[in-house]
Automatic annotation (TrEMBL):
One of its GO terms (biological process) is fatty-acyl-CoA biosynthetic process. It comes from the Eukaryota. Its main location: other. The keyword Ligase does not apply. One of its GO terms (molecular function) is long-chain fatty acid-CoA ligase activity. One of its GO terms (cellular component) is peroxisome. It holds the Pfam family AMP-binding. This is AMP-dependent synthetase/ligase domain-containing protein. It is found in: Peroxisome.
Amino acid sequence: MATAKRLPRLGISKIALRYLSDKIVRSIIKDNTVSKQSLSDYVWKNLDKWSDKTALVCVETKRSYSYLDVYKKSNKIANFLTNSKDLRKGDVVATILPNVPEYAMIVLGAIQAGLKITPLNPDYTREEITHCLKLSKPKLIFTLTDLWPNIYNVVQNVPIVLMNHRKEVMDIPAGAVKLSEVFDNTCPFKNRISDWNDVIYLPYSSGTTGLFKCIELTNGNLVSTIHHISVPEFRIQTLTDGNNQDVFPAILPMHHIFGIHTVLENLTLGCKAITIPKFNKETFIDVLENEKLTHCYLAPPLMQLLVNEPRIKPECLTRMRTIAVGAAPLGVNDVQRLHEKTKGNANILQGYGLTEAAGGICWQTPYISGGVKIGGCGMIYPTMELKIESESGL
């Protein structure tokens, strides 16, 4: 159960406050049971319904994977990891990767192998990487050949799996393994089941002061938050069926809880993700113009780009049903201007969450009366409780 002490600069809707008792805000949505599955099993529970649909496409290289491809390659990664003599259940593996399609495969494969995974920002300095590695102590790192020259001095004592991105690099460091070789492995799978309360994910949070903190999230934390945002009262996607498939840009960094959470949530629902490895204004505009996006998740600076960039025409935005904005508050004027630019066709929803709570705690929703309020943080997810305190604790 997630709790948060304070909601800075965000308002709780009046309808939510009706359920306030002893400073505890409870969801008005009826609690629903979450199946106690591993995260990988939860994501793949409906694979047979859309196995042939496109799951992940890289906007830079056009690498494309169907749902069945992603499932099989995740299994290959799990096989490789479970057969590694240096890895035991509960050990940590790290990613130092941008938003490439293979990111989700590595996360799901590592969790399926009974390991913990820790995501590092590929733009971290050597000092920042060193600090994070001291906290999480990974025994294996997945990264790009492009990034290796910048990080090898820091990670030279940790085994490496390297993947090519823009170009094929044949000459890799001694002892490193190519991700392409991992995908080709035929090792027998040794099943490792993660318990509901096992820690499986170690993201980093800036906290309130000082250096990054390493956060421990359990299998139950992640499955629960993905499940609760997918209930009918909050789900922004339509169900994948026949020729219908929702499409969204995976532009939020996957090393951030908001970014990976949205990718895993949408994979669970059969949506198509357009992965954007590194933000570039021209690339983003191209995606808006040429992809039939149904929804997107943005931080406020990207939302302001939608409003202020003259090359982003209203017709690029009016196809979207929902624009979800989190990570920081939005100004009333920005929301109103975006409403005008989308001609009122898109729901503009705000939410509140934090790394320590495995993502979102509450989100605006058009499916509940009073569920959308400019400047508000929305309605609390089912089964969650949120305590509001003043800085003085009174």
